[in-house]
Design a protein that fits this description.
Mean pLDDT: 92
Radius of gyration: 20 Å
Number of domains: 2
Largest sheet: 8 strands, parallel
Helix content: 40-55%
Number of helices: 14
Shape: globular
Number of strands: 11
CATH topology of the largest domain: TIM Barrel
Strand content: 5-15%
Length: about 375
């Protein structure tokens, strides 16, 4: 299937299956040959090679700026831009307030024996904004097609500056309430994240009261609440699942877990193995202090119940443990972020994964359009 024809004809099938079409548009989304966004996966899996492969397949590749130094972020942008013209960058929204140091130290005390067994020292917990302003300044100077945000709404000034530089601004939401806030803030499109999605929950506020909406429920509710293009995120692994979210009102699907075993991904060897199993996933704060979905493992099982809501302090605290786990191949120490359907991930080139999902979605939508006539 060529890039130019990879999704030919889907518009007619989709229109026949939907009661209405999205009222607003995104020039980036409209220009995609296949409506697939490669999810930004901070901490290693996202690489320039992965973004390039998805972009060459007709989708939109993304770089994950989270946890990278601004210098490394600049390097990744330069590497990607040398190979493709259009891609996105995801940034974590800083904010909130520092956690109570006593609860963080209490958690550190629980983890100390684990660190001693691994022969590493725990990291120093600290509160920071992941150098947010530096990232925005860099993206103003080096504009990309899309800048997406996770963990809330960035300052109005940042949105205005990025749009003035020529970038679309996409905000991640998990509920209609968040969607209304994001729309009012000036988002060009919304990434609607279901609770089944791998990685951190994109909720705006303290995650004790987070939305637990599944993707299809969230899509329907958000679609009724705002007039913006929607990108669906939540363990989309197959063409049929991708078709489902398109018919439910999404302009594209954002796919991450399906790429974890691709050779272009920077996934650790231990996570590649774990992703291929049918082990259950859990929502846990054990690794970062913020709820995230990953494959259940020893660190979660033994320490998750004690983990406080303290992000990014806990993330810094556990960083040496996680790095050691990746280095020695111990999955019990690694944040094995993955969506609920992770066992369906295949060890295939990212371009082939993208085209397979697009082809499967086209087939599914066309078949049902015929059956429902």
């Amino acid at each position: 299937m060529s890039r130019a024809t990879s999704f030919a004809g889907i518009g007619h099938a989709r229109t026949a299956s939907m009661t209405q079409s999205p009222p607003n548009t995104s020039s980036v989304l409209e220009s995609l040959a296949v409506p697939i966004i490669q999810a930004p996966m901070a901490g290693g899996p996202s690489t320039p090679a992965l973004a390039v492969a998805v972009g060459r397949a007709g989708g939109l590749g993304f770089l994950a700026a989270g946890y990278l130094t601004p210098e490394r972020m600049q390097q990744d942008i330069t590497t990607t831009r040398a190979q493709i013209d259009r891609f996105g960058v995801n940034v974590f929204v800083g904010g909130g307030k520092p956690a109570n140091p006593e609860i963080v130290q209490a958690y550190a005390a629980h983890l100390r024996a684990e660190a001693e067994r691994a022969g590493v020292e725990l990291g120093q917990p600290r509160f920071d904004d992941d150098r947010f302003d530096e990232r925005i300044d860099m993206l103003r100077r080096e504009p990309v097609a899309v800048v997406s945000f996770t963990f809330g709404i960035p300052p109005k000034r940042a949105i205005e500056q990025l749009r003035a530089a020529g970038s679309e601004v996409w905000l991640t939401v998990t509920s209609p309430h968040e969607a209304r806030q994001a729309s009012a803030a000036g988002a060009d499109a919304l990434i609607v994240q279901g609770v089944e999605a791998g990685g951190h929950r994109g909720v705006f506020v303290a995650d004790d009261s987070q939305s637990r909406l599944t993707l299809l429920a969230a899509l329907q509710l958000v679609r009724a609440a705002v007039d913006l293009p929607l990108i669906a995120a939540g363990s989309i692994m197959t063409g049929s699942a991708h078709a489902a979210v398109l018919v439910a009102g999404a302009s594209a699907g954002q796919i991450g877990t399906a790429y974890l075993r691709a050779p272009e991904a920077g996934t650790s060897d231990a996570q590649r193995v774990a992703t291929a199993t049918d082990a259950p996933t859990v929502l846990t704060r054990a690794f970062s202090g913020r709820l995230a979905r990953g494959i259940s493992n020893r660190l979660h099982s033994e320490y998750g119940k004690d983990a406080p809501r303290a992000y990014p302090e806990v993330n810094h605290l556990t960083a040496p443990l996680r790095a050691h786990g990746r280095a020695v191949g111990d999955p019990g120490l690694i944040n094995l972020w993955a969506g609920e359907a992770h066992s369906l991930a295949e060890s295939l080139p990212a371009q082939e994964i993208t085209l397979r999902i697009a082809r499967g979605a086209r087939t599914a939508i066309t078949a049902w359009a015929v059956r429902l006539r």
